[in-house]
Amino acid sequence: MILTAPERRHAIAGGAFSLAGIAVFVGVAIVTLLAAGIGSGSGNPLADPYLLRVLRFTLLQATLSTLLSILLAIPVARALARQPRFPGRLWLIRLMAVPMGLPVLIGALGLLGIWGRQGILNQALTGFGLSQPVSIYGLTGILLAHVFFNLPLAARLMLAGLERVPAEYWLMAGGLGMRPASVFRFIEWPVLRGLIPGIAGLIFMLCATSFTLVLTLGGGPAATTIEVAIYQALRFDFDPGRAVTLSLLQIAVTAAILGAMALMPAPDDHGLTSGRATRRIDGTLPAARWIDGALLLLATLFIGLPLASVVVTGVKADLIKLVSQTIFLQATATSLAIALAAGLLAVLTAFAIVRARATISAERRKTPGLRGLAMVLSGTSSLVLLVPPIVLATGWFLALRPLGDPARFAALLIIVINALMALPFVIRVIEPAYVIHRRRTERLAASLGLQGAARLRLVDWPGLRKPFFTALSFAMALSLGDLGAVALFGSDSLMTLPWLVYSKLGSYRTNDADGLAFILGLVCLLLTIAGTAGQGRHEDEGRRND
């Protein structure tokens, strides 16, 4: 990387400043929790029967959710890989991407519309004489919701791995006349076996830190995870001592999961597959076609019906009345303002970190200080994931109590927390685009003598504008759908769209909740579309330029 000495200093200083800001914000929360825990004289949390029950249920539901997601994703991924040319394949893969970008609360409402007490499934089973055949609340509902969100993720990661298998393998399998069972044993399973540990670790992490789904579908004290117990301890019981103990326990659990994940091979997702996989002989057999078709139909219904339920029930609601209410307008304005601020903060922080990492990696002679800074910058995502949003909110809630009502700082805290939670995803979008852009333009910019603001205006901004807007739209969508930090600080004076939906649901005004959820989902979808519009054309042009 061809940079002048001042540019190198500014880039490294920007990364160090961003890292320091993250460390201070996370560190204050952790230190406050540790100090409060020592001050309260809390003993071994595993000696408390309540805490032990909450920990056991957290690990149990995360383990079962992970096992179900992995076991169900394997046949779905195999069916997609064996049938590369069936009609609608690309749309099914795109459908699998929807739950990953959908606000969790909207997914929960969609599942209630299908599996809930008045849902389509229960109404159909009631017609056969069963009074209450399916209950979505409690452990069953939590597992169902986690599989809904994580099965598509696991299937897409597995499919990406199966489609990287060399074409010669399939030609040899066809020449040897291998049966489907042999193909799975000798070709597919070795690939999946290398992917499953990383995928399972990722899903387990998501399920162990799940908050909104458990809060919505938990069904009482018997189905409470650590994060929901933290929320209940502060919001309802106002027991800071117990909240501190639970927060420290959550940090310990998260650290253990991250440590285990560091030892696993990371799943590699290359996005949507192109649909140009080599023709597989094992997928042309009539029995295989029928089985794969049935599996893909069931997967489509399992994922698509809750999404369709959100649309249908949302359209049925009185949307005109909802959007004209003052509380909706206030919640929308607050949500958009918080989302925009959090998105901009996440993008600027990610850019500073990415720029610093690229600058340090290009240095020929690295001092021990630069090596250490590069290592810490690379672990920024892990530092952010170490402390979940509800734990950060709890730490800052306790830190700000001596200054008065912590609710006065709620909006600022929510912005920073949402920005931190989006930071790993934003870095993943910006970093590859930045590295490619600098490799393409650094020699030309240096030959023209472009530096500083002139280079930013004439070279960097035109080339990085698209990935920046993509990252901003994703960060805003994540912030718009977040209920973690808002659940602790949300009130009539600070009302966001997710908190408004949850409040309507809690007061049994399900029609209003359905309408608001539809609007929230539509806004998030429009943000995602706006961020990815023209992405394929942009990538094609980039490949032609290369």
What is this structure's SSE topology?
Elements: H1 5-40, H2 49-82, H3 89-101, H4 104-115, H5 120-126, H6 139-162, H7 167-176, H8 180-208, H9 212-217, H10 226-235, H11 240-262, H12 286-316, H13 319-323, H14 326-362, H15 368-378, H16 380-386, H17 389-400, H18 410-448, H19 452-480, H20 484-489, H21 497-506, H22 510-532, H23 535-545
Task: Describe it.
78% of the residues lie in helices and 0% in strands. Helix 2 packs parallel to helix 6, helix 10 runs antiparallel to helix 11 and helix 18 runs antiparallel to helix 19 (452-480). Mean pLDDT is 82; it is low at 267-277 and 536-546. With 546 residues, it is mainly alpha-helical. The protein contains 23 helices and no strands. The chain is globular, with a radius of gyration of 25 Å.
Low-confidence stretches: 267-277, 536-546
Q: Sum up the overall morphology in one term.
A: globular
β-strand number: 0
Alpha-carbon distance between the two ends? 18 Å
Output the structural class. Answer: mainly alpha
Task: Give the C-alpha Rg.
Answer: 25 Å
Assembly context of the chains: single chain
Largest sheet: none
Number of helical segments? 23
Strand coverage percent: under 5%
Assign a percent range to the helix content.
Answer: over 70%
Average pLDDT number: 82
H/E series: HHHHHHHHHHHHHHHHHHHHHHH
Short description:
The protein is mostly helical and 546 residues long.
Provide the descriptors you would attach to this structure in a database record.
mainly alpha; disordered C terminus; 546 residues; 23 helices
